[in-house]
Amino acid sequence: MVYEEVAIMGANSDADIERATELMTVFDNYALTWTLAPFSEHGGLPPVVSFNWKNDTVYFSETTLTQLVPGGNGFGTFKSESTDPSAPDSNIVLGSQSDGVKKEVNLGAVLRYPRWGTRTHCAKIPDLDKNLIPFSQHEGTYLFTPRSVIQDLFSSFDLPYPTIPRFDLANVLVPGDTVPNGVDIDEIDFAVRFYNNGVAHSLFSMPVGESGKDGHGWMSVEQVLVRINTTYTPDGKFARLSDQSIPDIDGKPTYIGYDAIACVQLFEPWVLEIYNSTTGLPSSTRVVGKGNVIVSNNTVDREEKLIGTPLVDTDVNRALNSSNLFSVVNQMIKDNGRDSSYVPSPTVVSFTDGKGPYGYTELSPEAFARARGLADAGNILPYFAGSGKQLARRYPDHVLTSASINPVYMGAYLGAIFIIGLLAGFFVPKLPFNIPHRGFEVYTWMAAFRADELRGEEASTGIARNLELDDIAEQMGELKFRYIHPHTV
Fold first, then answer.
1. How confident is the model at residue 163 (pLDDT cuts 50, 70, 90)?
2. What are the phi and psi torsion angles at 250 (to 5°)?
3. Which positions, given as ranges, span the membrane (predicted)?
4. Of the ranges 118-127, 210-219, 293-302, the best mean pLDDT one
5. Contact present, 21 and 40 (Cβ < 8 Å)
6. CB distance 287 to 57 below 8 Å
7. Per mean pLDDT, which range of 296-300, 412-416, 458-462 is the poorest?
């Protein structure tokens, strides 16, 4: 099995990261965080693809055609004026080296290269009767996450529990608010205060570990709080209800239902294969393995070998590296939900197994992990590929059979058909029983309808039957036809 090394647009260049860093002040400004679109490419984002890996589901952003054409790029250029990734430049050969050796990403081949993917595990936060303050003295909602919940989530990834800085309770509690009775602060690793702003779902994300500085991706802990008015959830189940009722439009008492989960989300490098089709868009086919560099799948019967010369372009990244991608993570579409009445949005309903505006049932860790994976793979991962080159292996299609046209035989065949056609046109044989000739011209149709040749009995009016076409033309003479719509008669 042979391959060649080519370069595709699968990474962020230094210029891309510099533009992303300039936007950090925007995302640090709370007043500007609720955006409807990213401050980058505004074209249609690529679809999300997912693959099962052991007992997990890993989500990826699909490779776009513009990453594989000369002069193209991915979405992660952070140019706000653009609408789609740059159009190809016919004078540029994608993957060409500085020494002039061309390495084109030709169609009809499998490409293998590393890409960023995401996995998420979630679990319910227990005992909300003590781990939640629904409505504090200063009109806030507090959520406390025990260390044991987060430890179990990291264990589900076979990862050690990272060193997490101890949170300062004074920075969480508003002066005058107190910790609920029964909460052991020494067993709590995460605490967050949410505003009572009417939004049905609230999220708090905190990077943990090295935050990508080691180059192998990053991790974050998510705390998700759902607050919904029970008027809109006839089949809803909640871990806790508000202490005070709220009258609805008819004066009947309703409550605010509370539920919460904690999640651990990983952004990791994976090696995938895509098929660069000759007839359609590129499509991911499988996960080769976990890692940030391309690996060979050698077996006893098959060994992968490089053909041609390897790429020596210093601008080509041979491995994925997360150490400088912190600014890129912020490029995502955010949910601009209603800020009143705790009405369930389609986003909140997707965290359950229900459907429709009144379909909220019960907050599900599995459903939220799936929804979060789809959202981040569709709105974050596309921006990890910009105008930076990434090394890829190209495995050409193995041609099993082919077809070609012999010009001599094809010319003789077409010539014979042409001659037969001429003979049939100039030497029309006489039909049996002296039946006159008929064709597709107008006089044939006149004979069929006006001479009543389609009927079994003798014609009473019009043209006589069994006339030759020349005789019909002579008998009809110069006639003019006009069409009259039946509704105008």
1. confident
2. -95, 5
3. 408-428
4. 118-127
5. no
6. no
7. 458-462
Q: Are 135 and 243 in contact (CB under 8 A)?
A: yes
Q: How many of the other CB atoms lie within 10 Å of CB of 19?
A: 21
What is the H or E stretch that residue 200 is in? none
Rounded Cα gap, residues 39 and 80, in angstroms: 6
CA–chain centroid gap for 80, Å, is 21
Rounded to an integer, the average pLDDT of 216-237 is: 91
Burial label, 402 (beta-carbon count in 10 A; 0-12, 13-18, 19+) = exposed
For residue 317, the cross-strand partners are 390
| φ, ψ for residue 52, nearest 5 deg | -80, 135
d(CA 304, CA 273): 15
Q: How far apart are CA 248 and CA 234, in angstroms?
A: 14
131 is written with which tokens?
Answer: 């781990």
Distance CA 229, CA 344 (A): 8
Q: What is the C-alpha separation between 266 and 207, in angstroms, rounded?
A: 10
- How far apart CA 423 and CA 402 sit, in angstroms, is 36
Has residue 109 got a pLDDT over 80? yes
> How many CB atoms lie under 10 A from the CB of residue 444?
16
Beta strands in 102-217 (DSSP E): 109-124, 132-133, 140-146, 188-195, 201-208
Task: List the beta bridge partners of residue 334.
Answer: none
What is the residue extent of each domain of the chain? Answer: 2-396, 428-488
Q: 211 — alpha (psi -120 to 50), left (phi > 0) or beta?
A: left
- pTM over 0.85? The answer is no
pLDDT, greater one: 40 or 362: 362
